């Protein structure tokens, strides 16, 4: 029975290469320029997270999802609220908690940004058969979800003792 360990490690290396390439190519800066947007990467990430959230997140939930410290998330959210891209609404179940929602301007901005990125991604695989595109999207998402779940569980276990 083949364990596919080498192939999975190679795929992980490819994902790392992709991540480095996207940072190096200044993808977010290029997309902002093409979309006519002036916003930094963290602002885009916050708007994107709120846009995709099933329900409006609190600042604490946003910070946890983005793996940043609460005060950092709070400062960034305040900046986006001041720009009119986000709004805070009182949680009806717990009036001490503010829920984040995109303003119409925030929705338009992040959708415009995503349209540029989606166009580039479609162009990059334009010559792929449709079934290959569907499969890679489904499988990469499933793979990342499963790895995330596995490592979340692993994080809750004690570290093994190092061997001398």
From TrEMBL:
Query: A Pfam family in this protein?
Result: MarR_2
What the entry lists under Gene3D superfamilies is as follows: Winged helix-like DNA-binding domain superfamily/Winged helix DNA-binding domain
Enumerate the spans annotated as HTH marR-type domain: 8-145
Protein origin, superkingdom: Bacteria
Q: Which InterPro entries match?
A: HTH_MarR-typ, MarR/SlyA-like, WH-like_DNA-bd_sf, WH_DNA-bd_sf
Q: Which GO terms describe its molecular function?
A: DNA-binding transcription factor activity
PROSITE patterns, A to Z: HTH_MARR_2 (PS50995)
GO biological process terms, semicolon-separated: response to stress
SMART domains (alphabetical): HTH_MARR
PANTHER family in the cross-refs: MARR-FAMILY TRANSCRIPTIONAL REGULATOR, TRANSCRIPTIONAL REGULATOR, MARR FAMILY
Protein name per UniProt = MarR family transcriptional regulator
Q: Which organism is it from?
A: Pseudonocardia cypriaca
